[in-house]
Amino acid sequence: QVQLVESGGGLVQPGGSLRLSCAASGNSFSIVVMGWYRQAPGKQRELVATISTGDRINYAESVKGRFTISRDNAKNRVWLQMNSLKPEDTAVYYCNARTIIDNSWGQGTQVTVSS
Question: In angstroms, rounded to a whole number, what is the distance separating the alpha carbons of residues 5 and 26?
Fold first, then answer.
């Protein structure tokens, strides 16, 4: 029931920064957790960061200290601030929203970290 649209991906040099945004529509008030996952070529999709309605946050170890996840007050938008980007961060990043009854995914946005 939740539709998600990501934006903000692109090409950035190592050490640079990028900010991803995800907007939720539909039954957005039912969302309890939002997060970001990523999938690099030839690899499995992996969790990057999640944030709950109560602002409980978890990060993958590989991004701790570099990435910051946040939500707006209405819990219908989530951002991922990515700093000190590394080539290994290159992936398609997907927004995720979880409710008590379903799990929704965005279309993905490409992040490429390269010189």
Answer: 12
Q: Which residue shows structure tokens 């907007």?
A: 23
Check residue 43 and report its DSSP letter. S
CA dist 81 and 73 (Å) reads 17
d(CA 77, CA 80): 10
Read off the pLDDT of residues 87-100 as tens digits, 9 standing for 90 and up: 999 999 999 999 98
Q: Are 98 and 32 in contact (CB under 8 A)?
A: yes
Question: Which residues are within 8 A (CB) of 26 and not within 5 positions of it... i.e. 6 or more apart?
Answer: 1, 2, 3
User: How crowded is residue 72: how many other Cβ atoms within 10 Å of its Cβ?
Assistant: 11
